[in-house]
Amino acid sequence: ELKVEQNPLFLSMQEGKNYTIYCNYSTTSDRLYWYRQDPGKSLESLFVLLSNGAVKQEGRLMASLDTKARLSTLHITAAVHDLSATYFCAVDGNTDKLIFGTGTRLQVFP
Amino acid sequence: DTGVSQDPRHKITKRGQNVTFRCDPISEHNRLYWYRQTLGQGPEFLTYFQNEAQLEKSRLLSDRFSAERPKGSFSTLEIQRTEQGDSAMYLCASRRASGRAGDNEQFFGPGTRLTVL
User: Fold this and answer.
1) Distance from CA of B37 to the nearest CA of A (A)
2) Using one digit for the tens of pLDDT, what is the confidence trace for A32-41?
């Protein structure tokens, strides 16, 4: 059974600091997705990583994928309050359904 | 707006009642997915359709749950004899299944929040 683990589960960080969220998964998957969710809202797609070594950046967020290590990272650079949200990684295990991680709740304070 | 839409956005019901939710996918998307998300957890897969065919159902989808996509466009998810444990956000997503890797991304609707009293 495909399992996806994220850590940390909760992250409180000061504005301007850098940090990395980790996503590990248990079986082969060539594709990995990062989503953002604000409280009470739906999921907003951030990144789609489709191959080993893929790296994508958007603003202060950068995501990477290592399919051999079954690991993805979401790096936050110089955090700002607007980044406060819950971040989910998801993999499809080369199937048609997404398996989500437990989420990382990020809180950025002044 | 050409995104995924869901109706209603919120539903409060009493235990034992039946409820039905609707999802309208992005118009050219032939795959439609239902997920359930409980508080503090990630979404969990329930079922998905390709056009009108239901291709997979999770074991989470008990006999009280049924989903349809009769004309390959919108879909409905019905829960019969609701229980308090059914309280959750029900999310719908869609994508185009073209065989191209770039079309694997699922786009999510706003969700229907169900509260069972």
Assistant:
1) 10
2) 999 999 998 8
**Closest B-chain CA to A87:** B42
A-B C-beta contacts closer than 8 Å: 57
Per-residue pLDDT reduced to its tens digit, B75-112: 999 999 999 999 999 999 999 877 666 667 899 999 99
Residues B96, A41, B103: CA angle, nearest 5 degrees: 15
**Is A102 in CB contact (< 8 Å) with chain B?**
yes
Cis peptide before A8 (omega within 30 of 0): yes
Amino acid at B36: R
Closest by CA to B48, choosing from A41, A2, A95, A50, is A95
Longest CA–CA separation in chain B, Å:
44
| Complete DSSP assignment for B67-113 | EE-TTSS-EEEEESS--GGG-EEEEEEEE---S-GGG---EE---EE
Is residue B111 classed exposed, middle or buried when 0-12, 13-18 and 19+ CB atoms within 10 A define those classes?
Answer: buried
The structure tokens 């229907």 sit at B112
Helix/strand/coil for A21: strand
